[in-house]
């Protein structure tokens, strides 16, 4: 009979075995072929998952989850696991970095993961400058010394599937130059999706920059770097260099006397305009891609970088998504169900208000107020009935337009929460721009037939109703802010009065 190892000994054995396997996998004589490189990356990923599972299982074995020792050890395991994932992303690069960036921006994950993986947003292990120089010469036909007054060989950002260098042209214009080495493209196209391969086409990304710039040409808050087309190819992207700090850098914002909540509101307005009005969306708004610059009207501007993942929304979908938010604001359950069927998820229509507005479809509380106790109990019963197949079916049934909006919205929520903005701000902003997207002025019904006139009349009535509802919500939000300010003022006055009273002889 084989005796059982103690828990810690078993953990150590699993970790050492998996660690040795990982080391050996990195030393195997794999070729540079896409298949071999794919196997090597997959092996690293499997090893990392195995080590992490073993670490959680055996480090916490036998401990009740409500004791201090469990919480202390859990935090340590979170940190170790996050460091392993960071190392995996840095070694495997490409799609793995993209995944790490997304995970780091999620609000639900432990802080050990978000803090550790946040470095992937703008800094990973860079490629040697010799590789970058070869790309530059092969694409632009000249040595960097012939094109630039100076060229920083150290990248200012090395994230995801490309890295960025700072340089100055001969005419003294500052530029940011984005590269990706040739060999990255080969395996990414074969191993991952067409969407990722499109991100590697810098000519398409440059067009996205210009489309976005045209859409926001009258917006004084948004800045889109200008493209230098004569220094841009499929593999090299040269753009105007813009100074700024990451949008979630609260210390910088407060130091520059910029209100973080105001930044959050403007950020939401910009992306709401993309989704509901323009129908052209920047699909990767993690903090490393959005800078706050002190230049601009109102004390700051938002600089939008990295337009590799942009999505042109189908016009029918755009209008239906506007309708969905109108129904969510008004809590029109019949309209929500109808639109859910249009989106292909009619079976799960009752969960759409929870996903987007945080209340149930039969909620009795106001939007932004959270769920009542009875609603929470009812929701738990519904969720218990859900199976993994239901979640999978829901996600697979959603159109691609919906999926990229969900991902974008999750990233925005994370940033807005870091800026300490009220949940009201997001709901009000989305409701406002959904109404703008449905405005009869923006979507006129042509013709003078009876049907056209009737449609226009109904559209105007619905638009006015939605605007009135949003107006009431704004009034409530303003009254809540006023109440907080008054409470803060009275608190200071009371404290001052108490001090004066105590100081009297």
TrEMBL record:
Q: Return the Pfam families for the record.
A: ABC1
Q: Which SMART domains match?
A: S_TKc
Which GO molecular function annotations are given, in alphabetical order? ATP binding; protein kinase activity
Residues in domain Protein kinase? 150-425
The record's annotation in InterPro entries points to: ABC1_dom (IPR004147), ADCK1_dom (IPR045307), Kinase-like_dom_sf (IPR011009), Mito_struct-func_regulator (IPR051130), Prot_kinase_dom (IPR000719)
Please report which protein family the annotation says this sequence is part of: Belongs to the protein kinase superfamily. ADCK protein kinase family.
Under which name does UniProt file this protein? Answer: Protein kinase domain-containing protein
